[in-house]
Amino acid sequence: MKPENLLFAETHEWAHIAHEAGGQVATVGISAFAVEQLTDLVYMELPEVGATVAAGEEFGEVESVKAVSPLFSPVAGEVLAVNTELPDHLETLHASPYDKGWIARIRITDESCLTKLLDYAAYQKQCAAAGDDPA
Amino acid sequence: MADHMANQSLSRTPLHAWHSSHEGRLVEFAGWEMPVQYGSIADEHLATRSAAGLFDISHMGRLKFDGDRALPFLDRLVTRRVANMKAGQIRYALITNPQGGILDDVLVYRLQQADGTPRTMMVVNASNRGKIVAWLQQHLRAADALTIRDVTRATAMLAVQGPAAIELVAAMVDVDLPGMKYYTGTLARLGSVEIVLSRTGYTGEDGCELIVPAEAALEIWERILARGARPVGLAARDTLRLEAGMPLYGHELSEQIHPLQAGLQFAVQLERRDFVGRDALVVAQSDTTCRRRVGLQLRDRRVPRVHYAVLRDSQVVGEVTSGTFSPTLARPIAMAYVDPPAAVVGQVLQVDIRGRLAPAEVVGLPFYSRNS
Questions:
Q1: Residue B306 in contact with residue B320, Cβ under 8 Å?
Q2: SS3 B241
């Protein structure tokens, strides 16, 4: 997927919104910028299938040599599926952050959360402002 | 995922501009703006283990003692005998307070100058530099006839570490570096520049450290890189020292910890001498209840971090002081202080990693030794 077609949370997660029967489904992951900043990934904890998450709620974690970072759900909804291949192939996050590196699919239950997400241009601006040291 | 933001008020090393223009990710460390990494931490770590890494360690404090009585003066303040040091020797020691708590861990250098007279220097931790300078001044007596000079800003300090380090630097200097033993040092010439060259380091690898004039630092840095060393940031310096079982001030060492519980007996000499903290350490020798520094190795991939609780039979028996994912062992490792009954190699304890208990085996330090 092209990052131009994604929405981004300030906390570096992305969401791709698809309209499916029964509502909107978000495929979510973490941005190439975030992966590059983390470097040296060693561990990842996926969200739980079936869990209900709020937008901005911690729903997993990714750990590097240096530190552990929480993953925050960019949308509110129910976790339909997770990428179980990912924890054993963390290099996929580097190689394909917007495709094979997807983390979870979430059925959106509250569309209002989408208005808080940034488009790619705005997200890039945020990353540039943070320089090499994003918060 | 963020470190401290870069800040204008922080000290900068003479190599700051080089780091900035070479992908160095700059973070605050002990009041300095330092490169934490240039790329992958694991790559920098493994390059040091397999070839040669080059580190800017100019943040370390460098003190020079002008006067004949430097060694007897320092002998009153450090845990290890230094009064008998001969030219060319370097000793690791602790500076302790009257309670035996560690104020800093330091290297004392005794060097021979060109005119045959000795020079005494000390390298201290960046975070403790102000405290130690004040401590030394406070204990200085008129009869010592000494001047303590803080030469940190006038100089830079580089470490070249790894199996290729000695050969690499030997070709650049006018002394027999391969013939120098570990923990020895000398004045040397690198081109036209006088430097302090020592066979020391903080990585568990063979290697050397160079104290150079600030204005010569960039040229020397680039010449070492041109010979094939790879720049390595503070993050890999930390994973390297952790694998090597070396303590870090602020983590394994503090004013609440004494050298004996830290496992630093080799740097403590209590017999036939006196120094600040000695009497407390004599008492501490027979203390069987204080927590001990141990190594922990884990099976899974979640990493124990500083301050995580260590448990045994559901009881908290200690605390992690440093932890990382070891690039060499491909496992999480940690150092922790635990109660003596838990400080037994082979015992499996547990670390509370954000609410979940992970088995952690007590192992002997170091985790990694280049000779094994």
A1: yes
A2: helix
Per domain, the residue ranges of chain A are 3-130
CA of B326 vs chain A CAs: smallest distance (Å): 8
- Structure-token pair, residue B38: 């240039």
Cβ-based contacts of A12 with chain B (< 8 Å): 1
> Do B124 and B106 meet the contact criterion of CB atoms below 8 Å apart?
yes
Tokens at B190, concatenated: 């690198």
Quote the pLDDT of residue B222: 98
Q: Which domains does chain B have, with CATH numbers?
A: 11-60+153-243 (3.30.1360.120), 62-150 (3.30.70.1400), 288-363 (2.40.30.110)
* Beta bridge mates, A69: A62
Predicted confidence pLDDT, tens digits, chain B (372 residues):
334 455 568 999 999 999 999 999 999 999 999 999 999 999 999 999 999 999 999 999 999 999 999 999 999 999 999 999 999 999 999 999 999 999 999 999 999 998 999 999 999 999 999 999 999 999 999 999 999 999 999 999 999 999 999 999 999 999 999 999 999 999 999 999 999 999 999 999 999 999 999 999 999 999 999 999 999 999 999 999 999 999 999 999 999 999 999 999 999 999 999 999 999 999 999 999 999 999 999 999 999 999 999 999 999 999 999 999 999 999 999 999 999 999 999 999 999 999 999 999 999 999 999 975
The alpha carbons of chain A give a radius of gyration, in whole angstroms, of: 14
User: Which stretches of chain B sit within 8 Å of chain A by CB?
Assistant: 1-3, 5-6, 25-27, 36-37, 39-42, 235, 239, 300-303, 305, 324-325, 327, 332, 354
Question: What's the token pair of residue B11?
Answer: 């000290």
Nearest beta carbon to residue B41 from set A39, A132, A134? A39
Query: Shortest Cα distance from A21 to chain B (angstroms)?
Result: 37
For residue B321, the SS3 value is: strand
From B23, which residue of chain A is nearest by alpha-carbon distance? A132
ipTM for the predicted complex: 0.86
pLDDT at B7: 54
CA distance A66 to B235: 7
- Closest of B154, B119, B150, B126 to residue B136, by C-alpha: B150
What whole-number distance in Å separates Cα of residue B126 and Cα of residue B306? 20
Tell me the C-alpha to C-alpha distance, in Å, between residue A104 and each of A28, A30, B1, B101, B333. Answer: 5, 10, 21, 50, 30
CB atoms within 10 A of CB A125: 11
Q: Are A61 and A44 in contact (CB under 8 A)?
A: yes
Burial B55-94 (b: 16+ CB within 10 A, else e): bbbbbbbbbbbeeebbbebbbbbbbbbbeebebbbbbbbb
Note the CATH architecture for domain A3-130.
Answer: Beta Barrel (2.40)
Q: d(Cα B122, Cα B146) in Å, to the nearest integer? A: 14
